[in-house]
Design brief:
- The structure holds two protein chains of two kinds.
- In chain A, about 40% of the residues are buried.
- Chain A is globular, with a radius of gyration of 22 Å.
- Helix content of chain A is about 35%, strand content about 20%.
- Chain A is built from eight helices and eleven strands.
- By secondary structure, chain A is of the alpha/beta class.
- In chain A, helix 2 crosses helix 3, helix 2 packs parallel to helix 4 and helix 3 crosses helix 4.
- Chain A has a domain of about 170 residues: P-loop containing nucleotide triphosphate hydrolases (Rossmann fold, 3-Layer(aba) Sandwich).
- Chain B contains eleven helices and no strands.
- In chain B, helix 6 crosses helix 7.
- The chains are: A alpha/beta, B mainly alpha.
- At the A-B interface, helix 2 of A face helix 8 and helix 9 of B.
């Protein structure tokens, strides 16, 4: 039995005629300590999948089990890093994190909370900005705050919903390393949702492509057998990396082609000729 | 030694060069820039104020002439040539008894303003004298358990302003206390929103006068036994009820339209319902609530004058009404003075609210 298990999960938005099936028969098992990446096109239902796992949404049918128990609500055991940071703009960096820490450790003293906040702010190298508001920070800094907030709650599993997609390539690389460093330190289970195949290969143990929606479903998984810590520059020469990367891209592109060709609606165009407007 | 001298010399040269550059920059660039902002920020408004006063003066002059001509003409047709000549001479002499009653000129308004201030000084001196005179007596009365004697003379213009401000603040606080909690509750619950919607839609456009009458009906009965000042109670409650709708609607809207991301954060952090409201929903709807409060305060100030006028409660509104009823030769200009004072105070109140809003809110770019 897996640490996190999704069994025949379906998710439909709307009812009756307007119903759109976003997720179709999702089956996924993640073992404890694993780093799994789900790669998919934008709009393929990735965020819906994350929200199902973290408990913000309920599946239309099927079962989601975390440590053997059905997921019915959000829980501090599963920390979430949202796509658009979702920091509260009226609180400073420290206050944003303190709010999460207070909720995760309701019985602890003020001293403990203060220490934990500064510990995690330091971890993401934001101590000089601890009293700043999110608006005064750059995108990368904001995302680091979101990472610190999620981790400060000491979750057993980290869910990351395209956490780095809004960042520039350089910041992105740095944060990838930082997340990996934190992950490898106490080997938490992690699920990364991304649209970047390279990011997935660099970070994850397993990559599972998400066939684009509507009726998105998971494709065949790709194991990444590259030893950690991985090196980005060396990765480019790794034959396994090249093979996996091409296979995944081929698979995704194949679905892309499929998606294009499935649009078979034929539109009859009216025969129009320009009027002779000179006369 | 020599080296250091040369170094200092070159430094001096450098300094001189930079100073020159700076100087040239200042002399050429800054005045140009400053002149532009000076013109835009000070000269243009000043010119427009002068233009306004000029137009006002000319308008008042022509109205004055029409009124004067009419008066002379009337004297001619009613009483004959002699009377009309007398009227003409009387008007020209500036005698108070026969001045045409019309829109006062800026100069007259300024005179009235000075009169009102002088009047205030007199009354204040009178009050102080009264206080001194009754100090010993009042001390005795309080010791005996009786009410002290208070000054019951005519209030000055400044006193009226203070009374009006008191009324408007009492009304504003009432509006705040009613509208914000109800707005939060309505905003949180769709069912309650539907339940209250008709009430808001129906009562929002009701005129201040009708509110006053409604409040009067209720307060009159409720304060039957007490001898408290019911005019003040009636006017501040009416002001509050008239003005609270903007806050109510804005609060409800702000609370019901909190960014879904923040709600998700609250859910993921597993905040309790109380925490969710106070730590996420309220802060995020604060800008809208404050916009509502700003509108409420300006509506309260606007409505106050009409309500004081009708409720006969002391304040700027009754000042205007009394002056209008009074019909003295400077009544019209006193009314215009009151008009300007009302406008300026309304403007200042709005600025204060904006300042508080900017201080509290995370959304720093709110403007007028």
């Amino acid at each position: 039995m897996g640490y996190l298990e999704l069994k025949e999960v379906y998710k439909t938005y709307g009812e009756g005629k307007n119903a759109t099936e976003v997720l179709h028969n999702i089956n996924l098992t993640i073992q404890e300590g694993e780093f799994v990446a789900i790669v998919g096109f934008t709009g393929s239902g990735k965020t819906t999948l994350v929200n199902l796992i973290n408990g913000l949404l309920k599946p239309t049918s099927g079962e989601i089990r975390f440590k053997g128990k059905a997921v019915v609500d959000t829980s501090h055991e599963r920390g979430v890093i949202f796509q658009n940071y979702s920091l509260l703009p009226w609180l400073s960096v420290g206050q944003n994190i303190a709010m999460a820490v207070k909720e995760a450790f309701p019985d602890e003293k003020r001293e403990f909370i203060k220490n934990r906040v500064s510990q995690y702010v330091e971890m993401v190298n934001l101590l000089p900005a601890i009293n700043k508001r999110p608006k005064e920070l750059s995108g990368g800094m904001r995302q680091r705050v979101a990472v610190a907030r999620a981790l400060a709650m000491n979750p057993e599993m980290i869910l990351m919903d395209e956490p780095l997609s809004a960042l520039d390539a350089l910041t992105r690389g740095n944060l990838q390393d930082e997340i990996l460093k934190i992950w490898s330190k106490d080997k938490r289970t992690a699920l990364l949702i991304t649209n970047d195949v390279d990011e997935g290969i660099y970070m994850a143990d397993r990559i599972i492509p998400l066939k684009p929606g509507p009726k998105a479903t998971l494709g065949p998984e790709f194991k990444i057998d590259i030893e950690r810590p991985r090196d980005k520059t060396e990765l480019n020469d790794n034959p396994h990396y090249k093979k996996t990367r091409n296979a995944i891209i081929e698979y995704l592109m194949g679905i892309g082609e499929e998606r294009k060709t499935t649009a078979t609606a034929f539109y009859e165009l009216p025969e129009l000729a320009p009027k002779n407007f000179v006369a | 030694m020599k080296q250091s001298v040369t170094v200092s010399k070159t430094q001096e040269l450098k300094l001189a060069a930079t100073a020159k550059v700076l100087l040239s920059k200042f002399t050429i660039k800054t005045p140009k820039f400053e002149l532009k902002t000076l013109v835009r920020k000070i000269i243009v408004p000043l010119v427009s104020i002068l233009l306004f006063i000029g137009l006002w003066h000319m308008g008042a002059q022509s109205l004055y002439n029409i009124e004067a001509d009419y008066k002379i003409q009337k004297a001619l047709t009613d009483q004959g040539r002699e009377a009309s000549d007398a009227m003409k001479a009387c008007i020209a002499s500036g005698d108070i008894s026969c001045q045409p009653n019309t829109l006062p000129s800026p100069a007259q308004v300024w005179e009235s303003f000075k009169t009102l201030i002088a009047d205030h000084k007199v009354i204040r001196a009178d009050k102080l004298a009264f206080k001194e005179k009754t100090a010993a007596l009042n001390a005795n009365r309080i010791a005996e358990g009786k009410d002290p004697i208070t000054y019951t003379g005519r209030p000055s213009f400044v006193d009226q302003i203070v009374t009006s401000l008191k009324t408007v603040f009492a009304g504003f606080i009432l509006a705040f206390l009613i509208a914000v909690p109800i707005g939060i509750v309505i905003g949180l619950s769709k069912t309650l929103r539907n339940a209250f919607n008709w009430l808001i839609q129906v009562f929002k456009p009701v005129s201040p006068v009708v509110w006053l009458l409604l409040v009067f009906m209720i307060v009159k009965t409720m304060t039957k036994d007490s001898n408290s000042d019911s005019a003040f109670i009636i006017s501040f409650i009416s002001v509050g009820l008239c003005a609270m709708w903007a806050t109510l609607v804005n609060t409800a809207m702000g609370v019901s339209s909190v960014d879904k991301d923040y709600i998700n954060v609250a859910k993921v952090l597993k905040l309790g319902p109380f925490q969710k409201v106070f730590k996420v929903i309220l802060p995020s709807s604060l800008p809208l609530i404050f916009t509502g409060l700003r509108i409420t305060l300006s509506v309260a100030w606007m409505v106050l004058i009409a309500i004081e006028l009708l409720a006969q409660s002391p304040g700027l509104g009754s000042f205007v009404w009394e002056e209008f009823q009074n019909g003295a030769n400077d009544s019209n200009s006193k009314i215009i003075v009151a008009m300007f004072i009302i406008g300026i105070i309304g403007f200042l109140l709005d600025r204060i609210m904006l300042m508080i809003q900017n201080m509290i809110s995370f959304n720093k770019n709110a403007t007028a």
